[in-house]
Amino acid sequence: MQIRARHFETLQPIDLIIEGDTIQSICTVECSPDEAASLPFVCPGFFDIQINGFGGVWFSSPELTVDQVSAITQALVDRGIARFFPTLITASFEALQHGFSTLRHAREAVPLVAAAVEGYHLEGPYISPDDGPRGAHPLKHVRAADYEEFSCLQDAAAGQIKLITLAAEAENAVPFIRKVREQGVVVSLGHMAASAVQIQAAVDAGATLSTHLGNGAHGILPRHPNYLWDQLAEDRLSASVIADGWHLPESVLRCILKCKTLANTILTCDVSGFAGCPPGVYAEGDVGVEVLPDGRLVVAGQRQFLAGSGATTGDCVVHMMQACGIELATAVRMATTNPAQLMGMETPTVDAGQPATLSVFCTSKDLVDGKIRFLPISTYLQGRLVSGLNTT
Ligand SMILES: [Zn+2]
User: Fold this and answer.
1) Residue 33 C-alpha to ligand 1 middle, in angstroms?
2) How many angstroms does the Cα of residue 7 sit away from the middle of ligand 1?
3) d(CA 359, CA 381)
4) What is the CATH number of domain 46-342?
5) Mean pLDDT along residues 260-279
6) Secondary structure of 353-371 in the HEC alphabet?
């Protein structure tokens, strides 16, 4: 199989040959500037550590089915996301157990899911009960950190919960973090209202990431100290950001990037289970969410607190480039290499001998707002074309 595209780093036109599950060779193609400009880009498959669902289905739904997991996975690879963590948010033990065991069955039964799903993210339920930090997570299921409960969920997940987000101030957080770190689970801080001392203690215990820094926070905070400064200043914490154009102003994205550096900033779309749904008010269990005509998803009944995004990872890559004035290759690394590095996983490049897990896409300039938009073309997973058309 052959792909003709521009290499995301060199921007040079290349012919990339796939043999089995590997990139066998890459050779530069001589062509005119116009021909080169008409070619799509090829980069390692986007890897998103926070995907809540799609098309009206949440991974945390107590009725989640294998077919739904399969359909969401196809919708994601259709948008260039080749590797991802299904993310279960705060819910009852039964709903979480059902979600993780359904994901396990889906990986066993559906090869596409097995190839694309690299592990699971548990976001909650050990988070702040406060309005603001809690975001769209249902209050009645917020609880103290409980290692025994987590162990049962990890059993249901066949050991595939690889990332957990919790609040640094949750009851029992520090011993909980130590124990899950021993199991190799990466710990992220988020949906919290913690003090500097509590954040320090959580990082000392092994937390290494801030989940969607700047969101899942109070609408109004003391100017200082507050938990945003404390996380920005802590070099042992990488940060994920939702760079969808709605969740963070461009100045905040630029500040986070400066504090965390290019190597320790991770792009996530945090796509909502209601992404891909028409405008309206939706409810999933106890979570009321309104999809607005402009594409924002908010906690129903107000406009201040967002409830996940309607964008996907490629949209965030292109927005991050424009918001921060960075190159395509740099923004792509934040959605490929950086999350993989944080998770201690394979960090593929587009070179001979590398896995043929690739996203092919182009961009177009919107005639109305002048912004550049992401357009997925095709996605390859371990040498297989799983979405779109082969480009040659
Ligand atoms: Zn969240």
Assistant:
1) 43
2) 33
3) 9
4) 3.20.20.140
5) 94
6) CCECCEEEEEEEECCCCCC
Mean pLDDT of the chain: 95
Whether 2-42+351-388 shares its CATH topology with 46-342 is answered no
The Cα–Cα gap between 147 and 164 comes to 12
Cα 89 to averaged position of ligand 1 atoms, centre (Å): 8
- Kindly list the distances between the CA atom of residue 358 and the CA atoms of 119, 254, 345, 374, in Å, as whole numbers in the listed order: 19, 28, 16, 15
Report how far residue 386's alpha carbon sits from residue 376's, in angstroms, rounded to the nearest whole number.
12
CA of 224 to the centre of ligand 1 (A): 23
Q: Which of 330, 385, 341 minimizes the C-alpha distance to 360?
A: 385
Instruction: Read off the pLDDT of residues 34-53 as tens digits, 9 standing for 90 and up.
Output: 999 999 999 999 999 999 99
Beta carbons of 175 and 112 less than 8 angstroms apart: no
Compute, in angstroms, the gap from residue 133 CA to the centroid of ligand 1.
9
The structural domains of the chain, with segments of one domain joined by +, span 2-42+351-388, 46-342
Cα-flanking dihedrals φ and ψ of residue 132, to 5°?
Answer: 105, -80
User: Using CA atoms, how far apart are residues 268 and 209, in angstroms rounded to an integer?
Assistant: 13
pLDDT digits (tens, 9 = 90+) for 129-184: 999 999 989 999 999 999 999 999 999 999 999 999 999 999 999 999 999 999 99
- From ligand 1's centre to the CA of 137, what distance in Å? 8
Contact 347, 374 (CB under 8 A): no
Q: How far apart are CA 358 and CA 203, in angstroms?
A: 34
The pLDDT value recorded for residue 285 is 66
| The pLDDT value given to residue 377 | 97
Whole-angstrom distance, CA of residue 106 vs CA of residue 70: 7
Q: Tell how far the Cα of 191 is from the centroid of ligand 1, in angstroms.
A: 6
Q: Note the CATH number of domain 2-42+351-388.
A: 2.30.40.10
Q: How far is the CA of 166 from the centre of ligand 1 (A)?
A: 10
pLDDT on residue 286: 67
304 alpha carbon – ligand 1 mean position (Å): 15
